[in-house]
Design goal:
- By secondary structure, this protein is α/β, with parallel strands linked by helices.
- It has a domain at 9-156 and 192-222 and 263-278: 3-Layer(aba) Sandwich (Rossmann fold), CATH 3.40.50.720.
- 42% of the residues lie in helices and 15% in strands.
- It contains 11 helices and 12 strands.
- The chain has helices spanning 18-28, 48-55, 70-75, 77-98, 130-145, 166-174, 193-208, 227-237, 269-273, 281-288, 292-310; strands spanning 9-13, 34-38, 60-63, 101-107, 150-155, 158-159, 180-183, 187-188, 191-192, 215-218, 225-226, 245-248.
- A 6-stranded parallel β-sheet has the order 2-1-3-4-5-10, with helices on both faces. Strands 6-9 form a two-stranded parallel sheet.
- β4, α5 and β5 form a beta-alpha-beta unit.
- Keywords: NADP, Oxidoreductase.
- GO terms for molecular function: dTDP-4-dehydrorhamnose reductase activity.
- Residues 11-291 form the RmlD-like substrate binding domain.
């Protein structure tokens, strides 16, 4: 999935996050790329004038900026929506003024989570929580203001080599606990941020070349599993005993925000753009676990295993 990026100017918002840092790395590695990254501290997307100034002179904007505290959104929906909804409107409006392509990263939480098969890109939405409602507003702003140059890419269960994420947490807990309870009644698609970053880069190039229709795309790994299934694979691939994990229901971990029970997404839309779907979640996880970010805590967990299990 490589194409020339010469003379193309990219802007990455939310460049300090799990995905944003990988998008920056992916884009800057390409010969001739002109890439500007803006962290939350450097660009507040709720400020329309700051957004307009940042977007100017860029051909593609990749919006990785987001309020990601799902439970926090329940306590302050207005603040979350200001970022996930109104902030996206500012970006879309600025892109409409300059003709820039906008790749906006969204979430499976805009869907009701009650399906029995993967959600198509055009499936009816119906968020269950404040976070999802704000993200859905952002999607609508992209579709309304950028009908030909706006792209929403929904992802889910994202983990990466930067920041806090489920895979890192499981390895950290393996060093401290003999057993770990993990939710086994929520289904999704664990997705490595580095793989999604590559897919976003290819989509942006295809969009500039006029090969990718605007609209919604699903940027998640192939296949499906539960949090418990993911944890077992993390343990197995890391040389830890998966039997140390115990499956529990969602009720064992009450949270302010309701989580969808089924967030599995279909990937038919990528064929329209001539862009490859992502590999399976197991293949992605195996590759990610070879990086120092995960290999080092896995080694520490194996070293602690004998003491923990014996105790």
């Amino acid at each position: 999935m490589t194409e020339t990026t010469a003379s193309t100017a990219w802007l990455v918002t939310g460049a300090g996050g799990i995905l944003g840092r990988d998008v920056l790395a992916e884009l800057t590695a390409a010969p001739g790329a002109e890439v500007t990254g803006r962290t939350r501290g450097e660009l507040d997307i709720t400020d329309p004038e700051a957004v307009r100034a940042a977007v100017a002179a860029h051909h593609v904007v990749v919006n990785c900026a987001a309020w990601t505290d799902v439970d926090g959104a329940e306590a302050d929906e207005a603040a979350a929506t200001a970022v996930n909804g109104t902030g996206v409107r500012h970006l879309a409006h600025a892109c409409a003024e300059t003709g820039a392509v906008l790749l906006h990263v969204s979430t499976d939480y805009v869907l009701p989570g009650d399906a029995g098969r993967p959600y198509a890109e055009d499936a009816p939405t119906g968020p269950l929580n404040a976070y999802g409602r704000g993200k859905l507003l952002g999607e609508r702003m992209v579709a309304e203001l950028l009908p030909r140059t706006g792209y929403t890419v929904r992802t889910a269960w994202l983990y990466g080599t930067h920041g806090h994420n489920f895979v890192a947490t499981m390895l950290e807990l393996a060093s401290r606990r003999a057993t770990v309870d993990v939710v086994a009644d929520q289904y999704g698609q664990p997705t490595w941020s580095a793989v999604l970053a590559r897919q976003l880069a290819v989509l942006g190039r295809a969009a500039l070349a006029g090969r990718a229709p605007a609209g919604v795309y699903h940027g998640t790994a192939a296949g499906r599993t539960t949090w418990y299934g993911l944890a077992r694979e993390v343990y197995r691939l890391s040389g830890l005993d998966p039997e140390r994990l115990r499956p529990v229901g969602s009720a064992a971990f009450p949270r302010p925000a309701v989580r969808p029970a089924y967030g599995v997404l279909g990937h038919a839309g990528w064929a329209r753009a001539g862009v490859s779907c992502q590999p399976s979640w197991r293949d992605q996880l195996a590759a990610a676990l070879e990086t120092p970010r995960f290999a080092e805590p896995a080694a520490a967990a194996r070293a602690a295993a004998l003491t923990l299990v014996a105790g």
